[in-house]
Amino acid sequence: MARAAIPGRLDWRVATVVDVRTETPRARTLTLDVPDWSAHKAGQHVDVRLVAEDGYQAQRSYSIASAPEESSVALTIERIDAAEVSPYLCDVLRVGDGLEVRGPIGGYFVWDVMQAGPLFLVAGGSGIVPLMAMLRHHARASEPTRAEAPVKLLYSARSWDDVIYREELERLADSPYVDVTIALTRDAPADWRGHRRRIDRAMLEETGWPASRTPRIFVCGPTPLVESAASLLVALGHDPVHVRTERFGPTG
Amino acid sequence: MQTEEMRLDGNAVAGSLLDVFAVDVTAALATCAGCGAERLVGALLEYGHGMGVVLRCPGCDAVMLRVVRAGGSVRVDASGVSLLAIPSD
Lengths: 252, 89
Fold this sequence. Notes:
A: alpha/beta, Rossmann fold, 2 domains, 6 helices, B: 89 residues, disordered N terminus
């Protein structure tokens, strides 16, 4: 007899890696075919579980990079040296391999283009990943819907080579409803004319929406960046309820 | 050291909370038994590692929810939450 599905209860499933793409020297995207995948919301994550032969388990959460409209699930993983999970996902896993996942997960750091109103996305490093799902979701909406939900992205990376999804972001920025600003904090090309410092109050004020437009704001990245940006946004007059954060921990 | 960097959001442990709750509670509104502040569970501060999950109030830092796996059981201490309002359709 079929067991009634309990809403929200998530089973572990074995996904299959169908594509691997190098994004930067430290990050790569795994595209997964997940059996019985129920469409995610932009901003959600999956849990990934690795089990060693001796039964030792390591579990991590990874944000989904693909749009809800896509049938497969893309995860972009940044390699953290000497960590337990990310080196395996970045260096070892191959097309055709299986990977245990459960998801989609999370009802807090999510956005739907039908919510309308301006959107401000603030990313640090691999914090761009869940925000990319939002941008891709936005790009798939009809023109009137996109026009109702104009997006500004402020993305801080260490160097030009560390900018994930660089070419796609350049393409997305061609849209009149998408504005992309990249800030490089360590190294920049000789001809770089953009920001060359960490995210600060002036940068948030210049690249985001004024508080009077009551944008929805999503901030994702390393904990110190997220907490600093969130405090500055509130100081700029944004309602804390509209500033949603996702901190990426150092474990990987 | 590292305590600030180890701090994550309630959102990050949504999967572990699904071991306890039948629905995703990250969008549920939790009232802190300590200071009375209301926050979405996804916005609570998470310090859990290894043994389980500890969610603290971002306002007063009190422990609101603790989920620990030990001795063949999952132990849930929700004494720091005076009310949990879960959205329903």
